[in-house]
Amino acid sequence: MIGAYRARTEAIAASLTATLCLDYFFIPPIGKITIADPQDWLVLTGFLAVSLIATNLSAVLRRQRDEMALRQSDSEKLHALNRAILLSNGSGHSLQRLLVNKCIELFGFEEAALFESSSGEYYRSNPDGPIGEADLRRVARYGSIEKEGRATIFPITLGNKIYGSFGFTGSALSVGLVQSLGSTIAIGLAQAQTQQVANRADAVRRSEELKSIMIDALAHELKTPLTAIEAAADMLHSSRVSADQRDDLISVVQQEAQRLRRLMNEAIHLARIEAKRFKLERQPVPAETIIRGAIESLGQQAHAHPINIEIALGAPAALADPELVTQLVKQLLDNALKYSQAGKPITISASEENGMLSIAVRDEGQGLTELEQSRVFEKFYRARRDKEGIQGTGMGLAIAREIAEAHGGSILVESQVGQGSRFTVTLPAARIPISQ
Question: What pLDDT is recorded for position 221?
């Protein structure tokens, strides 16, 4: 029994003690540690031999049990690491950081560092720790396990490919566990690299689709202004055009040219936002400044409807890029103007909502169905009735959504068919109060 649960030395001592007790209590002369009959020597010797053999077997079984428990514990840790890798989305450098942090959590490392050969990046739990970058690079290059002081560094390999190296301090791991850990980390890095390649391929595919759709949409929308400009130019060349007619034709050319410029600006804005090639110049911008800037940017188009501005008392300023948020509200207002009958009022309101600036544009147009509401912010999406009589490319609301999300805000639509729509955008509020 003692051999099964205690050290071998203690078990041997217990066997000897049991042999002496047998002699003292059961072998004549009772009460003395002496042996009168030579046969009793055989009994005691046999008892001691059996006891020692049993002790040795118990120690072997105990060692095997401990090794099995250790292997099971190591397997559970590797399984937990595998599970964390599978649940990771693998975006950016999140998986590499997760590998470092999870290994510290599971294996009790004091410090851990990961070097990825493909990117040349280092991921460390402690930037000032004893695991050197040169050591990590050397192990990743030559593929051998090294010990540098308290640190153990091993290659991350899968098959014949080395993905990098991993170093740790504070725990002692068996060679087998180190190799298994290296393979598990390699699987994670391989998964991350595969996901990155797939993401790049998907981005290229989406970019090509975006270019194709944008070209088709612009080609369709450019026909009308170009046709009008061409017709006006032909008539201006005619000697039979009166002075009043000439002024009207020049006005047509100017209006259509402005429309062309607006289409091109929308396309450029969307392309830059899609490519993330813009920098936010954040500053406090009053709600009234945003709203009036959007109205002025629409020029004569905004004069076809009465526009009511309602700014609640205490409405905060937005912490945003003035040009981009003005463009955002302009897109919402332009959308309301297009889908409202002439003379119908449009209301633009601003208020504080959950610590953010909320700007809403309300129209009394034809409204949207539930399906249209779910897709209205998609690039180039236009409802069936839009294509029949209302000009546009379907880029405006997509631009508005991208600008709102780039600022850390959001945009949503509430609408009922026949009763109009309400588009609401929320933007981070400036901490510095600005009087309206």
Answer: 58
Write the secondary structure of the chain as one string of H (helix), E (strand) and C (coil).
CHHHHCCHHHHHHHHHHHHHHHHHHHCCCCCCCCCCCHHHHHHHHHHHHHHHHHHHHHHHHHHHHHHHHHHHHHHHHHHHHHHHHHHCCCCCCHHHHHHHHHHHHHHCCCEEEEEECCCCEEEECCCCCCCCHHHHHHHHHHCCCEEECCEEEEEEEECCEEEEEEEEECCCCCHHHHHHHHHHHHHHHHHHHHHHHHHHHHHHHHHHHHHHHHHHHHHHHHHHHHHHHHHHHHHHCCCCCCHHHHHHHHHHHHHHHHHHHHHHHHHHHHHHHHCCCCCCCCEEECHHHHHHHHHHHCHHHHHHCCEEEEECCCCCCEEECHHHHHHHHHHHHHHHHHCCCCCCCEEEEEEEECCEEEEEEECCCCCCCHHHHHHCCCCCCCCHHHHHHCCCCCCHHHHHHHHHHHCCCEEEEEEECCCEEEEEEEEEECCCCCCC
∠ CA 339-404-292, nearest 5°, is 60
Residue range 391-402: average pLDDT? Answer: 74
Q: Length of the chain in residues, anyone?
A: 436
d(Cα 118, Cα 185) in Å, to the nearest integer? 14
C-beta separation of 135 from 153 below 8 A: yes
Residues near 422 by beta carbon (within 8 Å), at least 6 away in sequence: 360, 361, 362, 363, 413, 414, 415
Q: How far, CA to CA in Å, does 336 sit from each of 308, 309, 347, 413, 429? A: 13, 14, 10, 12, 25
Distance CA(230)–CA(163), nearest Å, equals 62
Residue 112 pLDDT > 70: yes
Residue 237 makes CB contacts below 8 A (sequence gap 6+) with none
Q: Tens digit of pLDDT for each residue in 348-359? A: 999 999 889 999
Residue 435: pLDDT band (50, 70, 90) is: very low
Distance CA(22)–CA(254), nearest Å, equals 119
